[in-house]
Design goal:
Elements: H1 2-26, E1 29-30, E2 39-40, H2 44-54, H3 56-72, H4 79-103, H5 107-137, H6 141-193
Antiparallel strand pairs: 1-2
Subcellular location: Cell membrane
InterPro entries: ECF_trnsprt_substrate-spec (IPR024529), RibU (IPR025720)
GO molecular function, one term: riboflavin transmembrane transporter activity
């Protein structure tokens, strides 16, 4: 029975990874005219839903797998640096939001978790853009530093806040589907064991 539950859990994680990759494939567009290479995508929404459902550890697993799959398929042009940037951005969001939501499993806790995750991701991406963007784009670090306040901070705040707000709106509906599926599976396993 434990093996069946583990398989069921992994299947849920795989569905969330697939949703994340599909969303970035279908929806991505620039939101900062000064930096058209910075694109909004809703790929973090299924990852955040998975984090709220299963905890920050599961959220990091979904993040890692989604980053690799996305980096090898729909975002292949960004290569290993794109995979790393995505992992550090989403991973920081997931860890902070997940740890807060585990302790405060309420609507207020969800709001606090998503706000803290948004701020964390934004701060992390300031640092990682200073390190990685000069390597990735071949631009001087000073040019990237000049973009921090007018471009990088607003972009990350907008992207993370929007994904957090959408997650807040859709989480309950999606969690009901997952709970219903999990409970149906639990009943069928109980019958099989009887």
């Amino acid at each position: 029975m434990k093996a069946q539950r583990k398989t069921h859990f992994l299947a849920h994680l795989a569905v969330l990874v697939a949703m994340s990759v599909l969303l970035v494939y279908l929806i991505h567009f620039p939101i900062m005219p000064a930096a058209p290479f910075l694109e909004y995508d809703p790929a973090d929404i299924p990852i955040l839903v998975g984090t709220f459902l299963f905890g920050p550890g599961a959220g990091l697993i979904i993040t890692a797998v989604a980053c690799i799959v996305q980096g090898l398929t729909v975002s292949a042009s960004s290569g290993i640096i794109g995979i790393m940037m995505h992992f550090f951005a989403t991973g920081s969001y997931v860890v902070v939001a997940g740890l807060i939501y585990v302790k405060h499993h309420t609507k207020g806790g969800a709001v606090a978790a998503l706000i803290a995750g948004t701020l964390t991701m934004t701060a992390v991406m300031v640092a990682w853009n200073l390190v990685m963007t000069p390597i990735f784009m071949g631009t001087p670090r000073a040019a990237v530093a000049a973009m921090i306040v007018p471009v990088i901070i607003p972009f990350n705040l907008i992207k993370a806040a929007l994904n957090g707000a959408i997650t807040f709106v859709v989480y309950k509906s999606i969690s009901r589907v997952f709970d219903r599926d999990f409970n149906r599976n639990k009943v069928s396993h109980a019958k099989a064991d009887a």
